[in-house]
Amino acid sequence: MADPIVILIVSLVFAMVLLIVMAWLADERRLRVQERVDRLQQRPRSPLAEELALPFNQRVIKPLVGRFINAIGAMAPAEAIEHARQELEKAGHPMGLNAQSFMTMRVFSVILGLGGAFWIFTNPLISAQHRLPLAALVMVVGVLSPHYILQKSIQGRHNQIRKALPDVIDLLVVSVEAGAGLDGALAEVVQRKEGPLVDEFSRLLGEVRVGKTRRRAWQDMADRVAEENLSALVASLAQAEQLGVSIAKALRTQSDSLRTRRSLQIKEIAAALPIKMLFPLIFFIFPSLFVILLGPGLLSMTGLMTTLGGE
Predict the structure, then answer these.
(1) What is the pTM of this model?
(2) Greatest extent of the chain over all pairs of C-alpha atoms, in Å
(3) Which of 1, 81, 102, 146 is most buried as measured by Cβ atoms within 10 A of its Cβ?
(4) Total domains, the chain
(5) Could you tell me if 171 and 244 lie in one domain?
(6) How far is the C-alpha of 106 from the C-alpha of 75, rounded, in Å?
(7) What's the DSSP call for residue 94?
(8) 231-239: which pairs have CB atoms within 8 A and are 24 or more residues apart?
(9) Tens digit of each residue's pLDDT (9 = 90 or more) over 262-309
(10) CA distances from 195 to 158, 201, 235, 308 (A)
(11) Is the domain of 149 the same as that of 224?
(12) pLDDT band at 151 (very low <50, low <70, confident <90, very high)
């Protein structure tokens, strides 16, 4: 008879080989099923199937809210909508707002401000002498807050563009001097940099690709952003192209001018700092110093005068 140990070893080896083969076959089957699923998913679906695949809030709620917002915003005068569109272009469309959405937000902000002011003015828990100032404050905040937030967004975006412009121009100069065209240099900047200025350059390149002339695309970007340094760059490039001057030379001149202007602005800010520090020095720091330095002496003199007067 065969040795039981040998039989056990052979059985274990056979079982191990069988398990390995079964696992391999299962993995192969899983891969084939996954490939079929991928092919089915890659098949073009009808627009109705794609819409039904979306969540309920995106299929129903979001379109209804969007139509409601656009309907309210469309009630505003055409001049106000156009002005809001221009301001949102300068701000880079924060939170994805369009002109109608912004006008709707202003309407709701005014309604909330007036409602809050009415609630404060009629609330018996608030003292009568405080009702009118608080109601006026809430109403002013409700009316002006959307415009203020938008202007702060424009200011912040302009600051980002102003800070990034010299470095971006230097990269354009290097690319142009290396033999690339202006569009190729812009494409290189878009690949290497980030920020609102790069986003504007990317949009400019897209407009040029669809057929808009380069000069028109640059001018539209300057009008859209409305930042003085970028407008000066666009004017310099247009003049260089018109007069046949080297683009690299015009860019380098503009970069030097921007850095000189920034240096002068920093010096102006530094020169104004002492004047701005006068108010906190006079009203906050000097009184504290006087109390710390002269307080003990005044107390000693008061005690001495009291003692002499008692004698």
Answers:
(1) 0.67
(2) 132
(3) 102
(4) 2
(5) yes
(6) 12
(7) G
(8) 232/257, 233/165, 233/169, 237/182
(9) 888 888 888 888 888 888 888 888 888 878 887 787 777 777 777 766
(10) 11, 10, 22, 75
(11) no
(12) very high
Residue 123 lies in a domain: yes
The amino acid that residue 27 corresponds to is D
What is the residue whose two structure tokens read 């005690």?
Answer: 303
| 174 and 236, same domain (yes or no) | yes
Are both 172 and 257 inside the same structural domain? Answer: yes
Amino acid making up residue 191? Q
Dist. CA 296–CA 59, nearest whole Å: 75
pLDDT of residue 69: 66
Read off the pLDDT of residues 59-90 as tens digits, 9 standing for 90 and up.
Answer: 666 667 667 666 766 777 888 888 888 888 88
Neighbours of 193 (CB within 10 A): 15
Rounded to 10 degrees, the C-alpha dihedral 34/40/44/50 comes to -90
The DSSP annotation for 263-285 comes to: HHHHHHHHHHHHHHHHHHIIIII
pLDDT at 154 over 80: yes
The domain of 146 spans 63-89+99-155
Are the C-beta atoms of 96 and 88 separated by less than 8 Å?
A: no
Please check whether residues 205 and 228 belong to one and the same domain. yes
- Asked, for residue 254, whether it belongs to a domain, the answer is yes
Runs of H (alpha helix) within the chain: 4-42, 47-52, 56, 62-73, 78-91, 99-122, 128-177, 182-192, 196-209, 214-225, 228-243, 247-280, 286-310
